[in-house]
Amino acid sequence: MESDLFERDHLEFGRTVAEFVKRHVEPNLERWDRDRLIDRDTWRAAGKQGLLGLAVPEEYGGPGETDYRFRVAVQLEIGKAGAAALQSGFSTNDDIVLNYLLRHADHEQKQRWLPGFLTGDTIGAIAMTEPGAGSDLRGIETTAVPDGDDWVLNGSKTFITSGILADLVIVFAKTGERGFSLFVVEEGMAGFSRGRKLDKIGLHAQDTAELFFDNVRVPAGNLLGEVGAGLDYLKRSLPLERLGIAIAGQASAEAVLGWTLDYTRERTAFGRRIADFQVLAHQLAELRTAIEVSRSYLDRCVREWNKGTLSAADAAKAKFWATDLQGRVVDTAVQMHGGYGYMMEYPVAKAFVDARIQRIYGGTNEIMKEIVQKDLIGRP
Predict the structure, then answer these.
(1) Which residues are the active-site residues?
(2) For labelling alongside 293, which of 54, 108, 113, 183 has CA 20 to 30 A away?
């Protein structure tokens, strides 16, 4: 059963994305992994093709396209190439950082920051996680203290996607008794520094870093939204972040199953195709069914997001379900490839190591189940 999510415009846009992937992504995957960085030329090429900043309103130079199905088309086409790091970077920019700016920035801030999200000249990051506080954001220690017309920011963040390349970083900080607030820290601000580029199991091409804030003076004009509203802003934006992660997991699962079907149809053992062994054939049948059922739910979530009715609990379900499924698919795929599945020259091996983080970032899957449980039984 094929997805019925897309209409003609989405399919045509998907072909544009596929051409971008063929020209700018597939030839560079190995180099990006070696460099542990996706070069800015790729971002600018994506901007030139109109793949970035789709939701930027027309008054700031964008198409003002709020139909999330176009973002899904980007995710799926990049997923077909096994370029999970690029998926992650683009999703951080468009589903997270840009989403916060569109929701909470004032007119002057939007004029300053939004145009770069269209061209690929501005790469953003969101800085929430700290060494001592992961999914529990109430435990963060980074502080922002008012001083004249500025705020003085102190603290550190870790596991920050696009932390090395980011031109602006949305920082989640404590603002005394007034709760938590969001601040936009820009490249070049005194006291803002980046630590090491973190050495990860997978997603090698996605630059991930530690960030440090040592008496960074953040102008009042870089406060995002209202003082003390940070937690509320996070709650309103996290469903889209988690939906984006779920779609990336789904895209990976679909791609990996396709590669595995091709391999098992061609590879022989004991005089017959691997795909003809009943045990393996049944596993493939189960995975295909699970992938189609998962896609149906995600399609529904996308439609709910477009209508403005996607709940935090439903987004949490999508995130933990799709990424758990992704893990099951890639693990089975490696097994079916045998020794070749352990070789990085095969895309299934790269998908295997890239997939593991999906069940951790954006809120661990255990936390996702807590959200669903709270919704289910009405626990405060």
Answers:
(1) 241
(2) 54
